[in-house]
């Protein structure tokens, strides 16, 4: 008898487990069906004052109110103040102040202050101040101040101040202040001040102040300051820097890398009489930034100049080097304008330099060249003639 009972239990338990599992699956399917089942129109004055219960498990087709709370929205929601959807939105969600969605939205969101989605956005989100998506954005996100995406952004983000993506960005970013991507960026980024990619950047970066790529930059960087660890493409700015490798070109006043030597030049000449300059020297190419005074004679009132030059240097024999450069000089005569001199001029100059290095930190050079001093106000020369200069170079070559 005991054996029969044990055999019966052994046969019944697997069958009971199968029945129980099927029952749970049926209930789960029923819950999902009920969750998506339309519940009609929701007219809401406040959170607990509405025609639809707050704990409804269906989906609202049409919502009109002042402040509403729903389970799902599959249709249109219009609220004077705000709207809270606990799960998903499929359609249009419009509120005077805020829209909050617990999970994902597919469609359009419009809010006077903020749109917040706990998971994904696929569509268009427009808010007066802040747009926040906890996971991924696919579409267009426009906010008066800040757009924030916790994970990835595929599409277009337009922020009055900032666009921030925690992981990757693929598409276009436009902001008044900065675009920041935690990992990789692919597309076009335009910012008033700063573009930052924590990983690699592929595409185009434009900013009013600086472009920074922590990984490899492939494409174009254009800003007063461009910085990349590795670069494949073009850097255009006042100061361009790469840390490890460049496969491309740098177009800027100063082009630098870890091997760039910064040297001090002290010299005199027949143009600006006393000059001090910094030379940024790479393997063959160099740029020079400096100032000189006086431009007029020592007997005149104070005058001065600022100049920039770029050139190429080649070895001649052992410690002897020859170089050539082209330059631009801005000239200010200050109070001398009251006694017949132009208030300001600019000069276009070409030079050939011969330099001898006594040690690895000290060199002597002489220069011959030609310059054209011109008016800013008309197409004419104020003066022109031969340039003669000589001086010393300090710091490591």
Verbal overview:
The chain has 397 residues and is mainly beta. It has three domains: 37-144, no CATH class; 162-258, no CATH class; 261-394, Beta Barrel (Porin). 9% of the residues lie in helices and 66% in strands. The protein has one helix spanning 2-36, and strands at residues 38-46, 49-50, 59-70, 72-85, 89-95, 98-101, 105-111, 114-117, 121-127, 130-133, 136-143, 146-149, 152-159, 162-165, 168-175, 178-181, 185-191, 194-197, 201-207, 210-222, 225-256, 261-269, 274-281, 285-293, 304-317, 320-332, 344-357, 362-375, 381-394. The strands form two sheets. The protein has a 17-stranded parallel beta barrel. An eight-stranded antiparallel barrel has the order 22-23-24-25-26-27-28-29. A hairpin with a 5-residue loop joins β28 and β29. It starts with a helix and ends with a strand.
CATH topology of the largest domain, what is it called? Answer: Porin
Q: Count of DSSP E strands?
A: 29
Q: Strand pairing plus helix content: what structural class? A: mainly beta
Number of helices: 1
| Number of domain modules | 3
CATH class of the largest domain: Mainly Beta
| Strand composition percent | over 45%
Helix content: under 10%
What distance lies between the first and last C-alpha atoms, to the nearest angstrom? 102 Å
Poorly predicted runs of 5 or more residues: 1-36
CATH architecture of the largest domain: Beta Barrel
Average the pLDDT over all residues and give the rounded result: 87
Largest sheet data = 17 strands, parallel, barrel
Spell out the helices and strands N to C.
Answer: HEEEEEEEEEEEEEEEEEEEEEEEEEEEEE
Shape: elongated
Radius of gyration: 35 Å
């Amino acid at each position: 008898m005991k054996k029969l009972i044990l055999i019966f239990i052994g046969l019944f338990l697997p069958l009971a487990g199968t029945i129980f599992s099927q029952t749970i699956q049926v209930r789960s399917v029923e819950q999902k069906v009920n969750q998506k089942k339309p519940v009609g129109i929701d007219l809401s004055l406040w959170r607990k004052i509405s025609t639809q219960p707050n704990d409804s498990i269906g989906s609202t087709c049409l919502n009109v109110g002042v402040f509403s709370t729903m389970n799902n929205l599959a249709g249109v929601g219009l609220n004077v103040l705000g709207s809270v959807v606990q799960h998903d939105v499929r359609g249009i969600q419009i509120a005077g102040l805020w829209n909050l969605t617990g999970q994902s939205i597919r469609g359009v969101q419009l809010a006077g202050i903020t749109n917040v989605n706990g998971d994904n956005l696929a569509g268009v989100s427009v808010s007066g101040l802040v747009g926040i998506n906890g996971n991924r954005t696919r579409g267009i996100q426009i906010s008066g101040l800040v757009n924030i995406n916790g994970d990835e952004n595929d599409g277009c983000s337009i922020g009055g101040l900032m666009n921030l993506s925690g992981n990757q960005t693929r598409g276009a970013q436009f902001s008044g202040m900065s675009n920041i991507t935690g990992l990789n960026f692919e597309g076009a980024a335009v910012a008033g001040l700063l573009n930052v990619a924590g990983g690699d950047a592929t595409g185009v970066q434009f900013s009013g102040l600086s472009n920074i790529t922590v990984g490899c930059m492939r494409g174009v960087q254009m800003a007063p300051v461009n910085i990349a660890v590795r670069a494949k493409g073009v850097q255009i700015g006042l100061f361009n820097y790469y840390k490890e490798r460049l496969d491309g070109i740098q177009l800027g006043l100063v082009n630098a890398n870890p091997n760039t030597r910064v040297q001090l030049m002290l010299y005199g000449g027949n143009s600006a009489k006393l000059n001090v300059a910094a030379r940024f020297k790479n393997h063959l190419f160099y740029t020079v930034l400096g100032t000189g005074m006086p431009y007029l004679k020592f007997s005149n009132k104070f005058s001065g100049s600022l100049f920039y030059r770029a050139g190429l240097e080649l070895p001649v024999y052992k410690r002897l080097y020859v170089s050539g450069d082209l330059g631009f000089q801005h000239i200010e005569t200050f109070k001398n304008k009251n006694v017949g001199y132009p208030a300001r001029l600019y000069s276009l100059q070409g030079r050939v330099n011969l330099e001898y290095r006594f040690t690895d930190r000290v060199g002597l050079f002489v220069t011959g060249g030609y310059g054209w001093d011109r008016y800013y106000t008309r197409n004419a020369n104020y003066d022109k003639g031969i340039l003669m200069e000589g001086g010393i170079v300090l710091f490591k070559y």
